[in-house]
Design a protein that fits this description.
alpha/beta, Metallo-beta-lactamase, Chain A
């Protein structure tokens, strides 16, 4: 789907193909066909975000991977042009693409009282991707967090399933805080969450356009 000046396709879960002057993939998972990505960003090392079999469908010897340091072991031996590890606040530039690492963590989702699935400071990431004058925020696996108040973006890709990540209600509040032109729900329909979560998110967001793609 054409969103502003970028062609954005949601493949599954948190996997998007973002195409403009370059082709960029986020967290490749359940990729059904071969493609050639210029850049791949990977938020963390969990099995539904870092999958070598899926990565190999989209990377070539000319691909750059930008990832959390949590991904170092999982990316070992992959034949690509470059692997660059980012931490929150870190920046990476390649040609016309600029990428900033954003913290991604849980505040209230966990396996037991006092524990969370994605701890703050562990290294999980979201990314702000600047391509062709458009800023896309890919939130990664996160709750509604204070860092969102300082993010500027035109398009926000936000998790909505409520399992490991924000609920639809929390994601709608995140959209209010971020105030993008367009918000897109993710993290549903593959492992956890359903279309109902995406539809609920859309019904709750009043301050910007929402596209379910």
């Amino acid at each position: 789907m054409k969103l502003l000046n970028l062609e954005i396709t949601r493949i599954a879960h948190d996997t998007f193909r973002i195409a403009g002057s370059k082709v960029l993939y986020t967290d490749p998972y359940k990729v059904s066909k071969q493609d050639k990505a210029d850049i791949v960003v990977i938020s963390h090392e969990h099995f539904d975000h870092l999958v070598k079999e899926d990565l190999q469908k989209v990377v070539t010897s000319e691909t750059t991977i930008v990832a959390s340091p949590l991904c170092e072991e999982g990316l070992a031996g992959l034949k690509v042009k470059k692997v660059h590890f980012l931490r929150p606040g870190g920046k990476f530039n390649e040609g016309s693409i600029a990428i900033e690492g954003i913290a991604a963590y849980n505040t209230n989702k966990g396996p037991a009282p006092g524990k969370v699935f994605h701890p703050k400071g562990e290294g999980g990431l979201g990314f702000v991707i600047s391509m062709d004058g458009t800023r896309v925020y890919f939130a990664g696996d996160t709750d509604l967090i204070p860092e969102m108040k300082s993010i500027r973006c035109d398009i926000a890709l936000l998790p909505v399933s409520g399992t490991y990540v924000m609920t639809a209600e929390e994601a709608a509040e995140a959209a209010k805080v971020l105030n993008p032109k367009i918000a897109v729900p993710m993290h549903y329909g593959a492992i956890v969450g359903s279309d109902a979560d995406a539809k609920k998110f859309k019904s709750l967001v009043k301050n910007c356009q929402v596209e379910i793609i």
